[in-house]
Amino acid sequence: MMKNITMGQYYPVDSWVHRLDPRTKILLTIAMIVAVFLVKSMVGYGLILGFMYLVSRLSKVPFKMLLKGVKPLRFILILTFLLNLFFNTGTTMLVEWGFIKISYEGLSTAIHYSLRLVFLVLGTSLMTLTTSPIALSDGIEMLLSPLKVIKFPAHELAMMMSIALRFIPTLMEEADKIMKAQMARGADFESGNLLARAKAMVPLLVPLFVSAFRRAGDLAMAMESRCYHGGENRTRLRVLKVTKNDWLAALGVAVLIALILTESMVTLPIWAAVKGLLA
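User: That's the sequence. What structure does it adopt?
Assistant: Structure tokens below.
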């Protein structure tokens, strides 16, 4: 399961998407997340899925690799779906059996929230897989640079966000190693129900935290030995510059959002009529 974590990893290939300005990729990822929350029907989710598949082809990142990143979240997805399904009350009842009540509104909310979580992970993973740690840090810093007027530590915040994001796969790899070492000593992480498996994970926490603090200390020592002083008088090997490819990417996302908004305005009256027939 740990190897399926794609968020925070970088897939080093030469592609059209990899060559885009990191600021463009960050802003377009945020726009994609906003677009996901604008979707009102399955057609809209289909448009986003098709767009992400096209981007994965252009970036040379296997689409299966993106989908693997959703697998570790299956328990969270199931929990999100069930909580919204059974505890979201509505007026149009689909199933009513004793204390079990499933409404049209609850089912719709459960599907929407679960799919939004999936696309949130896919979009974020696609950005980190196609953006190197240095480029991601530079992009965040440049986007926050106007706040330097009010003495906002843009570089330090960008560095912290980049390090935290890149620590995700590192910690997952460390947890996988600790788990295998404990399994070799007789620990069982695979049998039993969900609660039993969760309890079996508790012994992983102490060595994982110790390893995390050790890595953080090593990183701090390495930065201090190189006389790191934030963004003060820092030069860059690659100067960020927006090109026509960035504008083409922005145009593509703008067209996608326009299609989603148009589709929502057409689909909502249709679903309202269907809901009226079910009532």
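The chain has two domains: 1-131+243-279, 153-240.
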